[in-house]
Amino acid sequence: MLKILGIAFLHTPHKTPSILLIRHFLFHRSFSIIILNASNMSTILTDRLLADNSLRNLEDYGISLVARLNTKFETANYPQDVEISIRSIQSLYRELNEQLAPFLRSCSKRDALAKKQDIGYDSIDPASQITDDTISHINSILARLSEDMTGGRISLPEECPEIASMVQLMLILISMANMLSLGKFLLSTTLPLVDDIAYYDNVRGSSLAVGIYTVQTFPSTILALLSHLYVKLAAQHAYHTVREIPSWVPCWFKVVYQQWMKWIAPLPNVALKNVSTFLQSPAAYVVSRQKYSHSIVKMFITSTVGLPFLYASSRAKYHRKALARLRTHNIRRIGYLIDEILPLIKFNGSSVLKFNHQINVGLKMLCGSNFDGKSDENAGMSHSVSDDLTELTSICQTHIPSLKHSTHHLVRHHNQPSFLTRFWPLALIGYKYVPEIVQQVVNNREAAILWIRTNIVETVSSFARNWIVKPLVNIWKTIRHDDSSKIAITSKNSLNSDLEALERMTVDYCVENYSYFTDVPLTEANRETLVKNITAEVRSGNMDKVMRLYEQNLKTPMKAIINGNMVRNILIQVQKTKVDGDVALSGIDKIMQSQELVFGLVAASPACLVVWYIVVSTRSYLRNGYLVRFTRNHRQSALKSMNTLEKLVGIQLQISQGEQLKTSTFGDRYFNNGLIYMELINLRRQTSYIFPTFLQSDWIRDMNDVLATSQFPELRLNTIRRIWNVYGSYLK
Fold it and tell me: How many structural domains is the chain composed of?
């Protein structure tokens, strides 16, 4: 659960103290452990065996050798000791074949699919069939064969050379199995070292990380110091004696007092000596820092408060250097194993080549603590089968287990702290505060639910309903010319009713005051004409007659007020003003209705922009945010591997062309070759999280092309560049 929760903090770009604290606690191999299946990567080893049909030829040769031996055993009349030797060798060879049968079947299937250019062959891992139990059984067969030959129960008579050939074949098969197992072991122990080295680089990357690492490792540091003191104190206790017992000690307590004093008396000297040794390196660093410091306060802080942090930093540097050294040695061993030892396991067509001694020499040198990759001058000398058997037995029972034990010891001693060591502060904080917080949440769950419903759910729903749904519905109605969506300041019939009222008021007023305009008497004939003319003038906005009457009334205002003409005229003008206002508003309505779609889009734009921003931010968050931010590290690791791979192949190309390199950044030939294989493996495991599914098959095929072109550096370099051109966009 902590691994899942820690994804959000593993790769955050923000360098706030809280984020860095949690990030440091959660920095571990949570993702790389998933893909550290070294056996899936060890197909490189079996591919070298399948390169020139050597394994198939060896298998066929073994079948023919068994057939010849059976034929001779049935037809020839051998002595009893020879018959016993034949039966014993046949039994051991049959048992060895039973152990190697799954591996051989997987090799045959992989070889057949590879010839058909079937991409599915990459999923077949023959080396995975050689497990630790298989190696133990094979080594027990080797031990029994050695005991029988040493004890004289099995001999190699000259009259039956097939026995010696079968023993040689068995030795080659046993060497092959142990080499594959050793290669798997080297891969499985080398791959996690990259994560361990990255962990210590992260620790030493900032002062805050060093402080967190100090807190994390403080209990283990104290425990290591106490255990170291106990070992030294136990050594002092073995020979320390109490010379004199004080007189005040009771007789019944003298034995207990004597035993206590054997532990307590040497404690001060042992503690002082070993604590100083334990802190020698940080103390020396403090002294060197104080030489260049003129501040007493800074010297005091560095000598007291800063000493634990300096010790933690020095220990992290020490562990990182040891892991880097082990990684370099393992990579050189892998390169030597693949390029020099595995090619020795082959068949010449007529007999098993006398390469057992060379294989044994190579394995012995490979398992040595000071591996230098230099060949033995006596490797080509002829040796007997018994000598090769003795050498191989010693290698399988002593040298290979010793290498594995020393490697396990180094990894266990120098790798990143355990899960408990890294997380005990968080566990302590969680034990202190998490139960109380959980209890409060449970007790106040109804209030929390109500708060969430009121402040989050209702807010979101109201925003969506009022600012997204309604504007979009109005836009849809506008597009469909729905009258219910029309924007209007005034009602439809407001202007018509006001205009008709103004017409009636004006017509009545002008008719009653007809005599003012003309001397012609008003008759029914000209009344209609007058009404039409006045109505037309009013509709066109001409109020000339009303205004003339208003001017006349102003000459005698009191009289006009008394008889009502002035008030009536003013009210007509008020109605005219109202009609003019309605006309203006009606014009505005027409303008708004013509731009109604624009207004709808403007109204919906802010909400749509907010939704668009949320969607884009969420998409970017899911792609590059904290939930899957770890893919960025995978991309960076893949880019580094591609860069290193191209550099190494470029160096190989220069060497093949006869160019002399003054300096080599990467090391010798075996280191370069081993690093190429390791970078290819790292590319395979890193890109499994980056590339889409439809590209995986093409990517695997291109990786296999890089492996297949190991003898042609120029072609390999072109293949790498082609891979970069095709897949570079996914790695950026």
Answer: 6
